[in-house]
């Protein structure tokens, strides 16, 4: 579903908060987004800009389920019913996590627009373009400056081919930005492979849910995430005006340009955990052109907000599911809200089957390299209820037997407690399931809760 179509869907479901009063990009809009965290917001009147700002559209799990539905599924339900649809387990083929998991395996490249056809994202072409024309926010007084936060980078690595990923972009001037690139990941690798030569790239803003989801999956190098997005919901691509890069035709805004062999300080900026990230030397991007829809909407993403957390974290449920599905007894997997939907996961397994806890834990760490903690529970535990999970850990675990420690592992740069240079951390797994085999008749009852029911 296109970004603007989803915006219209939210309006029809009366789930969109629309703010009509004039709002400033200097701290004010970010503050309002934070006040409505978890709810979609549209700022119609942005001071000094004709382009409205939307935020929080993907700040709730159901947004992705709706965004990956086909036409018949959407028509079969009212918008309000879809918003309140019960969450399906990751292993259910109808769930968006399962669709994403399957799309990673069965990906298909998007088709280019036909000759002579126009692309909505190029209705307005501004060469070389000025970043001042966009309502780019300053989020907090301690930030290094104005940041673009919801963009998807599209580029071609000389060694691994086309790749897409999400990056925060600090504005340096009208035509210059600096991007935060994680060391040895897709964009950083592509820049290194150019060996000092410029790397062409486009940053798209106002993307469909399938493109945002695919951009956050981090599959193995060589896997084209744009093809994953197209498998979730087909779309066409168009070649940029000044560089040899193709972008989705339905993007709201496209910033074209090149990474040059120059690095400057990037930051400080609030990261996923709500703590400020350190300042690093990062690559500079020079803008060559900005194209957009005639009535474009700018998508702003508040750092550490619910939309930021879900966009980053939920695709990791699909990559973990890809590994867990090989075991045969896993029923569901979830990244937890308390860990910013990033560091901790809960895995639900079939209570009636034997399991190898170490295999479950290691599958999760393989599927999500930044994961720090994995807790395994049985299918009588609601993995969406932290109290239920805590009950399982408390009453079904003995830590001298059921705790798995993995010291000196490479973790996440987002973890303030990890080594910020090497990312070294200690990972942990907890087996909080009822012991298999037992110690005689009635053993399992010792681990089950009793529900009191009134007599009829």
Regions with little confidence, pLDDT below 50 for 5+ residues: none
Q: Can you count the helices?
A: 13
Second-tier CATH architecture of the largest domain: Roll
SS-based class = alpha+beta
Distance between the termini: 49 Å
CATH class of the largest domain, named Mainly Beta
Tell me the β content.
25-35%
CATH fold field value of the largest domain: Pnp Oxidase, Chain A
CATH superfamily of the largest domain: Electron Transport, Fmn-binding Protein, Chain A
Question: Would you write up a description of this structure?
Answer:
The protein has 456 residues and is α+β, with helices and mostly antiparallel strands. It has two domains: 3-299, Roll (Pnp Oxidase, Chain A); 326-436, UbiD C-terminal domain-like. Helices cover 25% and strands 25% of the residues. Strands 5, 6, 7, 8, 9, 10, 11, 14 and 17 form a nine-stranded antiparallel β-sheet that branches. The protein has a five-stranded mixed β-sheet with strand order 19-20-21-23-22, sandwiched between helices. Helix 8 (209-215) runs antiparallel to helix 9 (225-232).
């Amino acid at each position: 579903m296109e970004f603007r179509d989803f915006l219209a869907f939210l309006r029809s479901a009366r789930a969109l908060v629309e703010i009509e009063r004039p709002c400033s990009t200097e701290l004010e809009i970010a503050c309002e987004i934070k006040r409505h965290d978890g709810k979609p917001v549209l700022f119609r009147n942005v001071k000094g800009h004709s382009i409205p700002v939307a935020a929080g559209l993907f700040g709730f799990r159901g947004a992705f389920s709706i965004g990956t539905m086909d036409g018949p599924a959407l028509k079969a339900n009212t918008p309000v019913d879809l918003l309140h649809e019960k969450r399906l387990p990751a292993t259910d083929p109808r769930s968006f996590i399962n669709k994403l998991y399957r799309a990673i395996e069965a990906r298909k490249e998007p088709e280019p627009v036909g000759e002579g056809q126009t692309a909505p994202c190029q209705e307005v072409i501004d060469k070389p373009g000025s970043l001042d024309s966009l309502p780019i926010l300053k989020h907090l007084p301690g930030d290094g400056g104005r940041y673009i936060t919801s963009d998807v980078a599209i580029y071609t690595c000389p060694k691994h081919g086309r790749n897409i990923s999400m990056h925060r972009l600090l504005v340096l001037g009208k035509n210059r930005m600096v991007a935060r690139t994680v060391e040895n990941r897709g964009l950083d690798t592509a820049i290194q492979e150019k060996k000092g030569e410029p790397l062409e790239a486009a940053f798209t803003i106002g993307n469909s849910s399938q493109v945002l989801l695919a951009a956050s999956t981090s599959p193995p190098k060589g896997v084209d995430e744009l093809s994953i997005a197209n498998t979730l919901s087909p779309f066409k691509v168009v070649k940029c005006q000044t560089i040899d890069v193709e972008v989705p035709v339905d993007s709201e805004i496209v910033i074209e340009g090149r990474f040059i062999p120059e690095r400057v300080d990037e930051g400080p900026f609030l990261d996923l955990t709500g703590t400020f990230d350190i300042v690093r030397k990062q690559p500079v991007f020079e803008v060559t052109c900005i194209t957009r829809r005639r009535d474009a909407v700018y998508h702003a993403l508040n750092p550490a907000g619910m939309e930021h957390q879900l966009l980053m974290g939920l695709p990791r449920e699909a990559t973990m599911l890809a590994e867990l599905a090989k075991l045969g007894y896993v029923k569901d997997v979830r990244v937890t809200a308390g860990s910013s939907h990033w560091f901790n996961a809960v895995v639900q397994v079939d209570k009636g089957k034997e399991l190898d806890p170490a295999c479950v834990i290691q599958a999760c760490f393989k599927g999500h390299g930044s994961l720090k903690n994995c807790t395994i529970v049985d299918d009588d535990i609601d993995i969406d209820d932290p109290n239920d999970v805590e009950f399982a850990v408390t009453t079904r675990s003995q830590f001298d037997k059921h705790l798995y420690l993995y010291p000196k592992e490479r973790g996440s740069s987002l973890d303030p407690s990890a080594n910020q240079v090497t990312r070294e951390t200690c990972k942990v797994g907890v087996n909080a399931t009822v012991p298999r085999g037992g110690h005689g008749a009635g053993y399992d009852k010792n681990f089950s809760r009793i529900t009191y029911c009134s007599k009829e």
